[in-house]
């Protein structure tokens, strides 16, 4: 009884797999292929596969033509355009990046020079001893004194 | 997780190697085109979808990372999404009183064998999700795990779609709803 029940379950599963994947066991789930092959040798298994094979044969008749050369070429041309464009974009961004790095280096260098170098008075300030806060008051200052 | 057989090739495509680009097109174009033809039932539209799919590949190749899906599953998902966009557009144009079955007279190809034409029409007549499942497992030869990952469903749900799809096809093609 238990043996018969297990066979019945196997038959049910076998039929379910044939219904889903057809009569060619190469399409069946890998894990169930071996058990399926064993059951396929039985009378019930052969009948189930024969039935599924009818639809398989019809499905096999529907073949699709291979792609023609025109389609093949146009896809390759599109690849050249797209991948070339990507490469150009990549080089553009690389150039921009390098320019940015160069600019940042120049700014950093300038800042460093400004900070590190001691402030030196220009010669003309040193030589012009008469210059004071009020020394270059100019004609307005004189006019102001007169008005007082 | 098993190694992705396309990963190295995609990396080389991303680096702009012309030989890798040619290899990828030779390897994937027949699969993508076959998927689109069977989903749409229209060779011209399928070619447009194949071209759009490759444009997405070129755009993403340099930044593509495997994540949870193989590259092949990813391009199948992209192709299916593009097919769905076109199927939706068709529904917007077609009035509700027309049948879902594609008129074979509208198909552009040369005369085919009768069975092939019947299967093509039957595939167009079943629910798109069932068609997706059957096309991925039956024609694209994906494993159940790959197909389920591509459709973003469980393996059980995939089996249910496959079984319902095959029953529908059986009913249309042979007038018999049972498959066992």
What is the element layout, followed by pairings?
The complex is a heterodimer of chains A (148) and B (180).
Chain A: H1 2-21, H2 30-40, H3 43-60, H4 69-116, H5 123-127, H6 138-147
Chain B: H1 7-14, H2 18-40, H3 43-60, H4 71-93, H5 114-125, H6 128-139, H7 144-151, H8 155-174
Helix pairs in contact in B: 1-2, 2-3, 2-4, 2-6, 3-4, 4-7, 5-8, 6-7, 6-8, 7-8
What does this structure look like?
The complex is a heterodimer of chains A (148) and B (180). Chain A is mainly α and 148 residues long. Chain A has a domain of 59 residues. Chain A is 76% helix and 0% strand. In chain A, helix 1 runs parallel beside helix 3. Chain A is elongated and about 105 Å long. By secondary structure, chain B is mostly helical. Chain B has a single domain, classed as Butyryl-CoA Dehydrogenase, subunit A, domain 3, CATH 1.20.140. Chain B contains eight helices and no strands. The longest helix of chain B is centred in the first third of the chain and has 23 residues. The relative contact order of chain B is 0.11. The interface between A and B is large, with 38 and 53 residues.
Task: Provide a quick synopsis of the model.
The complex is a heterodimer of chains A (148) and B (180). Chain A is 76% helix and 0% strand. Chain A has helices at residues 2-21, 30-40, 43-60, 69-116, 123-127, 138-147.
First-last Cα distance of chain B: 35 Å
* Rounded average pLDDT of chain B: 88
Q: Which blocks of ≥5 consecutive residues of chain B have pLDDT under 50?
A: none
Oligomer: heterodimer
Report the strand count of chain A: 0
Number of helix segments of chain A? 6
Q: How many helix segments of chain B?
A: 8
Shape, principal axes of CA atoms of chain A: elongated
**Helical fraction of chain B:** 55-70%
Over all CA atoms, what is the radius of gyration of chain A? 46 Å
| Helical amount of chain A | over 70%
Task: Describe the structure using short key phrases.
heterodimer, A: 148 residues, mainly alpha, 6 helices, B: 180 residues, Butyryl-CoA Dehydrogenase, subunit A, domain 3, 8 helices, 69% helix
């Amino acid at each position: 009884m238990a043996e018969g029940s297990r066979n019945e379950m196997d038959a049910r599963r076998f039929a379910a797999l044939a219904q889903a994947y057809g009569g060619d066991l190469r399409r069946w789930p890998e894990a169930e292929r071996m058990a399926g092959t064993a059951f396929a040798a039985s009378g019930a298994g052969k009948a189930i596969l024969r039935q599924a094979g009818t639809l398989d044969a019809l499905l096999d008749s529907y073949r699709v033509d291979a792609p023609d050369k025109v389609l093949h070429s146009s896809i390759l041309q599109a690849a050249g355009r797209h991948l070339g464009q990507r490469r150009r974009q990549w080089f553009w961004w690389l150039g921009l990046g390098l320019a940015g790095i160069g600019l940042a280096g120049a700014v950093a260098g300038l800042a460093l020079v400004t900070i590190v170098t001691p402030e030196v008075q220009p010669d003309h300030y040193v030589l012009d001893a008469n210059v004071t806060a009020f020394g270059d008051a100019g004609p307005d200052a004189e006019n102001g004194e007169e008005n007082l | 997780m098993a190694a992705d057989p396309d990963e190295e090739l995609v990396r080389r495509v991303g680096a702009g190697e012309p030989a890798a680009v040619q290899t990828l097109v030779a390897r994937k174009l027949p699969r993508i085109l076959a998927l689109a033809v069977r989903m749409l039932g229209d060779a011209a539209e399928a070619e447009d979808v194949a071209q759009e799919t490759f444009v997405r590949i070129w755009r993403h190749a340099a930044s593509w990372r495997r994540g949870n899906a193989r590259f092949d599953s990813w391009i199948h998902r992209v192709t299916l999404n593009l097919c769905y966009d076109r199927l939706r557009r068709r529904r917007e144009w077609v009035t509700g009183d027309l049948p879902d079955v594609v008129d074979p007279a509208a198909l552009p190809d040369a005369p085919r064998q009768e069975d092939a034409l019947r299967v093509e029409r039957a595939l167009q007549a079943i629910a798109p999700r069932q068609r997706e499942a059957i096309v991925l497992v039956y024609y694209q030869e994906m494993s159940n795990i790959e197909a389920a990952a591509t459709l973003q469903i469980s393996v059980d749900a995939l089996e249910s779609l496959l079984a319902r799809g095959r029953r529908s096809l059986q009913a249309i093609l042979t007038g018999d709803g049972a498959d066992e």
